[in-house]
Every structure is written in C-alpha cells, then in structure tokens.
Amino acid sequence: MSWRPPVRSSEALVQDETETIGCELCGAAALEASRVQLALWEEERLVVVEDVPALVCRGCGERFYDDETAMRLDMLRGTGFPPGRAASEMAVEVFRLPDLGPRRDG
What class has domain 10-100? Predict the structure, then answer.
C-alpha cells in the first residue's frame, strides 16, 4: 500500500478515548493504532520508511495518518531520501506480470 495524505485531522482521528472511530472506506467498526512501513517511489528508486505511526482498519487494512505524520513524511520526501541517511538497506525481488502465468479475462 502506498502513502497518501490523511483523510482527517489528528483531532478528528483521536476525538475521545471512549469513542470508536470507523473506517471511512469500508465502514468497519474500529481502527487500530500501529507502526507501519511505507514503500515510496523517489524518481527511479524505491525507498522504505519504517516505524510510521498510523491508524489501520481491522476490516480492510487501509491506513490513515495524522497531520503531523503526513507533514514529517513530506519533509522527509523533500530531502530526496539521501542514501547516506538511510537506517539500513534491503534487497527486493522484482517480478513481471506476464511471468506470473496466463491471464484470465473471465
């Protein structure tokens, strides 16, 4: 799943500890506070940002980010993700869709 701007402000996401906030996409009853990874394209490079706070829908898995997190991600993206500042490096496997077998058009 890729990063997208928040759909609500942080105040709307965390209104009252006793109130359950539902998913705006699937309508599931609850969102769960979590730390996630984001995969982002920076020109021709794929970068991963770890330990990103998010509210994750238990129903569909959609992620919602508060205003501060979105701003910090924008600031990080503005740096161009300098390789010298990376916490670590990982190798990823690359696939091509035609190699995954015959296409089924139904």
Answer: alpha beta
